[in-house]
Write a structure and sequence with these properties.
Blueprint (H helix, E strand, L loop, with lengths): L2 H29 L6 H11 L3 H4 L1 H13 L1 H10 L1 H20 L9 H26 L3 E2 L2 E2 L9 H25 L2 H28 L5 H8 L3 H5 L1 H19 L4 H21 L2 E3 L3 E2 H4 L3 H28 L12
Antiparallel strand pairs: 1-2, 3-4
Amino acid sequence: MTIELLWAIILSIAIFAYVVLDGFDLGLGIIYPFLKQKADRDVAMNSVAPIWDGNETWLILGGGGLFAAFPLAYSIILPALYAPLTAMLIGLILRGVAFEFRWKNHAENNIWDKAFIFGSIMATFMQGVTLGAFLQGIHVMDRSYVGGWWDWLTPFSIFVGFSLVIGYGLLGSTWLNLKTEGELKIRSIKLSRRFFVLTLIAIGLVSLWTPFLNHEYFDKWFSWPYLIYVLPVPLLVASCSLGLYRSLNRGDDLKPFLYTIALFLLSFIGLIISIFPDIVPPSITIWEAASPQKSLNFLLVGVLIFLPVIFLYTGYTYWIFRGKVKEGDHYH
C-alpha cells in the first residue's frame, strides 16, 4: 500500500458513492415519464427532495480529489472529455433547477417536469458516454492529450451511455419501491422488473465488448491464471441478479435496492480490474499521474478529517428522512 494507491482508493469510493447516491435520484427522472399522475410524481419528487443536493457532494469530492491528487490525469482527461462532461453538467443544472421550480408551476402541463426528465436523462447519458470514452482509451503523447475533439464519440461510448440510463432507471425504480406504498409501489415493482432485464442485458454486452477494446483488458479477463481471480465477479453478478429477481417477486422493500447497488458495485469492480494500474488508460499509471508524496500526505490529513464528517451527515440525513413517503408529504 502506497500513498498514491490509497488516494486512488479514496477517489474510487467518492466516485462510486456519487454513482449510487445521485444515480437513484437521476433514475427517478428517467422513470418519471412512466408516472402519469401528478400525485405520483409529487411523491417521487418528495422521496429525494431532502437529500438530492447532498448526494452531489461526492461528485465535487471526486473532481476536486482528482485535481489535487492526480493533476496529470486531470489535465489529460478534461481536454479529452470536455464535451460530454460539459453536457453532463448542463443536465445536472437543469435537473436541479427543475427540482425547485416545478413546485411553483401549477399548470396541468408542467414544463419543469419535462425539464426534470430531460436533465436527468441527459446527465446520465453523458456520464455513460464519458465512462465509455475513458474505457476505450485516451491518446496521450509527452504527457498531454493529443486526440481530436470527437474522439469520445464512438459506438461503444454511445452504448455505455444508453446502458447507464437503463441502470439508473433500475436504481430509481427500486428506490421508489423502497419509499412508497400502495399502487405506486406496485407500479415501481413492475418498472423495476423491466429495467432489471434491460440492465442485465446491458451489463452482459458491455462486459463482453470491453475486453476487445484493449489487449490488456482481454488478457486480464480471459487469460490464465488471471481467469481464476476474476471469475468470482460474474458469479457474484449472477447471484445478485437471482437475489434481485426473487426480492422483486416477494415485494420486498429494501432488498431490491441493495441488490441493485451490489450489481453496480460489481460492475465498478470489473471496471477497476480492467484498467488497473492505469488512471488514464492505456498509458498513464496511478504513480505516474500522482502529485508529490508530500502534497499527498498533506491532503490526506484534510480528507481523513472531513470524509468521516461527510459520511456522518449523509447517514444522519437518510436516517432522519427514513420511512415511506405518502401523498401530501412536503419537504420543498
